[in-house]
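Service request form, structural biology core

Requester: graduate student, group of Dr. S.
Request type: structure prediction, single chain
Budget code: on file
Notes: please return the result as structure tokens.

Sequence provided:
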Amino acid sequence: MVMDKKFVNLKPKWLHVKFPLGKNYNNIIKLSNNINTICNSGSCPNIGQCWVKGVATFMILGNICTRSCKFCGIKTGKPQKIDFEEPKKVAHSIKILNIKHAVITSVDRDDLKDMGAIIWVKTIKAIKNLNENLTLETLIPDFKGRKDLINLIINEKPEVISHNIETVRRLTKKVRVQAKYDRSINVLKYIKLKSNIRTKTGIMLGLGETEEEVIQTLKDSKKAKIDIITIGQYLSPSIKHLPVKNFIHPFIFKKYEKIALDMGFLYVESGPLVRSSYNAYKHIL
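Core staff response, request fulfilled:
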């Protein structure tokens, strides 16, 4: 990710991270020639911390999204053709890296009749068939709320199914464009209604939301019986994306963490550098 030097200098000290080094980091870099990771495509600030530990979030269905969310660093446009060998490639990569808990996500593929759900199923099956004792989190798109497609994921029984609300209700149309706040909530609510699989969501701060709106989002999430929530600082991927309205102090993140835990969430990850896959391996315990 390339950022304007002025913007970098404006960032508070708690958002500065060390450049990633280590054997596992280099191993995943090599594998990235054949597979996509949200770590790279989404410019995650925790890339060093996670990759050095041999933990990564794999992104399927290509690296070009059909949606144009104003916060996201993933390319948008006309996607490439489906790679039907991708499920095997991802499963094999996880095997090589000896990963015990994997997170799988994808771009939105609204151009496909099944929105990519079949590749999702094939990927989950391939991973489980090749990796004994592996646990899995699936960070899914909203599939436009289609229950038949959501059921396909539920039927594969990953340990965690996550889908990110991303922001508060008022800002959703501006931040996520083609997404809907209530649709995302209802996707997660439906998963919990139809299964005992742990559900998870994530939101970003620093887009101009108020404290009252953040707390209401936590309440809406808990009402939908979501088990796990992550809260992190929004960082603009480029000058073409939405600007950061404000940098939230770590103390405020701790405050929201306590509020969420008091509401009854099983796990809460809240901090400036937290992203949706942060400490994901802990969320199955």
